Amino acid sequence: MKRHGVTIPLNSVPLSGHRRIIEELPDLGYTDAWTGEAAGYDGFTPLALAAAWAPSLRVGTAVVPVQTRGPALLAMTVATLAEAAPGRVAVGVGSSGPPFVTRINGIPFEHPYRHVRDTVRFLKAALAGKSVQGVFDSFTIEDYRPALRPDPVPPVLIGALRPQMLRLAAREADGLVTNFLAVEDVRPVLEAMGPEGAGKEVVARLFVCPTADTAYARARGRAMLGPILNARTYSAFHGWLGRDEELAASRRAWARGDFRGACEAVPDALVDALLVHGKPGECREQVARYVDAGVTTPLLAVLPVPEFGAGPDGMLSALRALAPAD
Fold first, then answer.
1. DSSP per-residue string spanning 165-179
2. Torsion, Cα of 215, 5, 187, 304 (10° steps)
3. 3-class DSSP state for residue 231?
4. Residues 6+ apart with CB under 8 A from 64
5. Distance CA 189, CA 167 (A)
6. Which contiguous run of DSSP H or E holds residue 141?
7. Which of 107, 207, 216, 261 has the greatest count of CB atoms below 10 A from its CB?
8. Which candidate, 115, 59, 96, 92, places its Cα nearest to that of 173?
9. What does the angle CA 122 – CA 123 – CA 128 come to, to the nearest 5 degrees?
10. Residue 14 CB neighbours (<10 A)
11. Residues 6+ apart with CB under 8 A from 44
12. Which residue stretches of 173-274 are H helix?
């Protein structure tokens, strides 16, 4: 089955205005709706609403942090959603980072790789209905006996960017979640997963700015990408991909506190590579290239543009224009 998803909540649309948009997604050819989780919406409430509003959509998290919920609470939340939407739930987990784990939740950001690995192992067992006890590297479980046993068992995916976590996704999870990558980056990412990644789901969030106004798209792209590409995790990711020289000017500006300059220093070519933009038909062609490269589940994160306008009507019009071809 070919999958084509959207990221929710949708830009410029309050959650109360999502229903009529979500209800129309399946008719437009969209199969999935996935959330992220940082400092805004939580990762599960929008999915519960989407699962109820559009009973054919698959819903998933891309991704929720492993350190901001206990393992049992995370398993309980996923199992609850899976009971409400059997066979239509996937859970993606990741390490997140200090801004979200420590600065706003007061939780030490320690041993991210171990915590992701241990949480995946816990979830795989608990969601399959197995009791879990024992000492993991990053936490100890005395005795968790799941009261809910979802059927079928939801797949567990890992949000990963660099080789160690990519290999973990291939070895112990049901797939990979990634984002902020160019089409040409898909190949090295899949190669880093190794042979164990063959046949695994590859979910990629693709930021889409459906406008023929290149200057507008690049301005929106720079404003979004400047902080992201200078964040610890994504700076290291793009360094691994060979972009240290390309990002050197932006990094220097960021280091001296010139945040506007850091955004302006992101090269046009990199903005064009990381942001899908152009007329809707051109955007669809760019998304198709990601699929051809190995992405199995593209998730569109649509930015508001003047051609369609803001708010629910504008977002719905944009999603209609970007809908996958038959």
1. HHHHHHHHSSEEEEE
2. 10
3. coil
4. 37, 43, 44, 74, 91, 92, 93, 94
5. 10
6. strand 140-144
7. 207
8. 92
9. 105
10. 10
11. 35, 61, 64, 77, 81
12. 183-193, 214-229, 232-240, 244-255, 259-264, 268-274
Let me know how long the chain is.
Answer: 326
pLDDT per residue of the chain (326 residues) written in tens, 0 to 9: 899 999 999 988 999 999 999 999 999 999 999 999 988 999 999 999 999 999 999 999 999 999 999 999 999 999 999 999 999 999 999 999 999 899 989 999 999 999 999 999 999 999 999 999 999 999 999 999 999 999 999 999 999 999 999 999 999 999 999 999 999 999 999 999 999 999 999 999 999 999 999 999 999 999 999 999 999 999 999 999 999 999 999 999 999 999 999 999 999 999 999 999 999 999 999 999 999 999 999 999 999 999 998 899 999 999 999 999 76
User: How do 276-277 and 297-302 pair as beta strands?
Assistant: unpaired
- Going from N- to C-terminal start, the domains of the chain cover 5-209+280-322, 213-277
Hey, what long-range contacts does 260-266 have (CB within 8 A, 24 or more apart)?
262/226, 262/227, 262/230, 263/222, 263/223, 263/225, 263/226, 263/227, 264/222, 264/226, 265/226, 266/221, 266/222, 266/225, 266/226, 266/229
Is the CB of residue 254 less than 8 Å from the CB of residue 222?
no
Instruction: Put residue 159 in one of left, alpha, beta given phi > 0 → left and psi -120 to 50 → alpha.
Output: beta
The CATH code that applies to domain 5-209+280-322 is: 3.20.20.30
